[in-house]
Specification:
The protein is α+β, with helices and mostly antiparallel strands and about 325 residues long. It has one domain: Chorismate synthase AroC (Chorismate synthase, AroC fold, 4-Layer Sandwich). Helix content is about 30%, strand content about 20%. The chain contains eight helices and 14 strands. The strands form four sheets. The chain has a five-stranded antiparallel β-sheet. It has a five-stranded antiparallel β-sheet with strand order 9-8-10-14-11. It has a two-stranded antiparallel ribbon with strand order 5-6. Helix 3 packs parallel to helix 8 (about 305-330) and helix 5 (about 225-235) packs antiparallel against helix 8 (about 305-330). About 40% of the residues are buried.
Length: about 325
């Protein structure tokens, strides 16, 4: 099966290219009778939408969702939900210089290897614009698990590093750049604008906290909660690593210390949620488009600020999928 499908009990199939007519998603497995809000779906898309922050891509898209099926009179029908977002501000000519050039770290070369053809405009299918479909999927996942709270934030981006793993203002409103420390907002804006001016790029890390997750989600062998979360996050373009709990620090700490507290395992033991706070972290590489091409085109010098709602969406989707699986066990 082609890799456009994700999930088991709750699934989504995304489709579309960056400069095509539209992008979209078909979400299947959402139970019937859940309250749907077009305004809340739009708000979720607005958090990821391009053209809203200085220092990010200059492409401006309203990202207006059109619901084609699965919703009636403000309720989910239990049938496949199809949503599209039309592209309205393509400037395909900006990408002619990339038609015959392969950017290291991007899918340009490997797409040709796989299909023998590629849509070079904006990265085509491998564009970060594909992630709007995942945000839509995450919105519908949140309807399935309304009591579970998921919060993502930037923990490292260039010179900006949080002094604590989990900020004290976790459930308060963050800066527009999704960095918990509001005092750094102006500096972050200048930093990103400076990267764009120089044709440079940067990567970073996003941390995610999940509260009020019930225990028992995940399987003991394959489809562990940790492996499905890793698969979901690493499927996001430019995401290069995943860890949970102490993560890589496990290699530096003796077992006598690690085993003192279940909190060191990030809310997941044996691949199954233990009912405690889940903590995970993902790393994103610097944007592949550099130099004159980055200055001329409409590229994010760092995708991390706009990637936060995407990571949140994928985490919600995995949790909702496993919640439905666990509910099936008890029925």
């Amino acid at each position: 099966m082609r890799g456009n499908f994700f999930g088991k009990m709750l699934s989504m199939t995304t489709f579309g290219e960056s400069h095509g007519v539209a992008l979209g998603v078909v979400v299947d497995g959402v139970p019937a009778g859940l309250d749907f809000s077009l305004e809340e779906l739009q708000a979720a898309l607005d958090r990821r939408a391009p053209g809203k922050l200085r220092g990010t891509t200059a492409r401006k898209e309203p990202d207006t969702p059109e619901v084609l099926s699965g919703i009636f009179e403000g309720k989910t029908l239990g049938t496949p939900i199809a949503v599209i977002v039309r592209n309205t501000n393509q400037r395909s000519g900006d990408y002619e210089a990339l038609k015959e050039e392969y950017r290291p770290g991007h899918a340009d070369k490997t797409t040709i290897m796989k299909y023998g053809i590629r849509d070079h405009r904006g990265g085509g299918r491998s564009s970060g614009r594909e992630t709007l479909s995942r945000v839509i999927g995450g919105y519908f996942a949140s309807l399935v698990i309304p009591k579970i709270k998921v919060r993502g934030y930037i923990s490292k981006m260039g010179p900006f590093v949080l002094s604590e793993a989990i900020p004290k203002n976790l459930w308060e409103e963050f800066s527009p750049y999704n960095f918990p420390d509001h005092s750094k907002t102006e500096e972050i804006e200048k930093y990103l604008v400076g990267l764009k001016t120089k044709g440079e790029s940067a990567g970073g890390q996003i941390s995610v906290v999940v509260d009020d997750c019930p225990g028992g989600l995940g399987e003991p062998a394959f489809q562990k909660l940790k492996s499905d979360l890793a698969s979901a996050c690493l499927s996001i373009g430019a995401c290069v690593s995943f860890s949970y709990g102490l993560g890589e620090e496990m290699a530096n700490v003796p077992g006598s210390i690690v085993s003192q507290s279940s909190a060191n395992f990030g809310g997941i033991e044996g691949g199954i949620s233990n009912g405690e706070r889940i903590f995970l972290k993902v790393t994103f590489k610097p944007t592949s488009t550099l130099g004159k091409k980055a200055k001329a085109g409409r590229h994010d010098p760092c995708i991390v600020p706009r990637a936060v709602p995407v990571v949140e969406a994928m985490v919600k989707f995995v949790l909702a999928d496993h919640f439905l699986r666990q509910s099936a066990y008890s029925n």
